[in-house]
Amino acid sequence: MEKKYSYGRGSFKTIEAGNELSWMIGNGIGGYANSTVAGGSAIMHHGYLIAALNPPVNRFLILTKTQEEVDINGRRYDLSSQQYINTSKNGHEYLEKFIFDSIPEYHYRVEDVKIKKVYQWIMDIIQ
Q: How many separate domains does the chain show?
């Protein structure tokens, strides 16, 4: 049985702190997805779709990440988090909690709106 991990806002007050914690899920055929609790890519092996063309080797990064924005009453909020050399995207500021219980769940709050983002393999398609 896998252990459930849960992190609250205090675990990722800064993007640097959120980038210290990572998650990973495998697809059973040599590929995987992984990222940080903050939602950014901190190392070159982070991505939402890393495929193994000759399992378990010849891995290729197919999809690095997504960038989400939400529009509430005409105001745009960027939920993306990414640290760059001279700047950063700070979507982790809207992240209330992160839960990993075999799949990663991001729980955001923007104004009075709650948003849940989940990454999960659809196993019937991957064969």
A: 1
Instruction: Output the pTM of the full model.
Output: 0.86
Count of CB atoms within 10 A of residue 122's CB?
7
* Distance between first and last Cα of the chain: 24
CA angle 37, 14, 84 (to 5 degrees): 85
CA nearest to 114, candidates 99, 100, 94: 94
pLDDT tens digits along 10-67? 888 888 888 889 999 998 888 999 999 988 888 888 999 999 988 888 999 999 999 9
**Rounded Cα distance, 47 and 123, in Å:** 18
Question: Tokens standing for 42?
Answer: 């901190």
Q: Is residue 116 over pLDDT 80?
A: yes
Cβ burial, residue 84 (10 Å; 0-12/13-18/19+): exposed
Query: Which residue range forms the structural domain that includes residue 19?
Result: 5-126
Amino acid symbol at 106:
Y
Asked if 95 and 9 touch (Cβ cutoff 8 Å), the reply is yes
Q: How many CA atoms lie within 13 A of 34 on its CB side?
A: 17
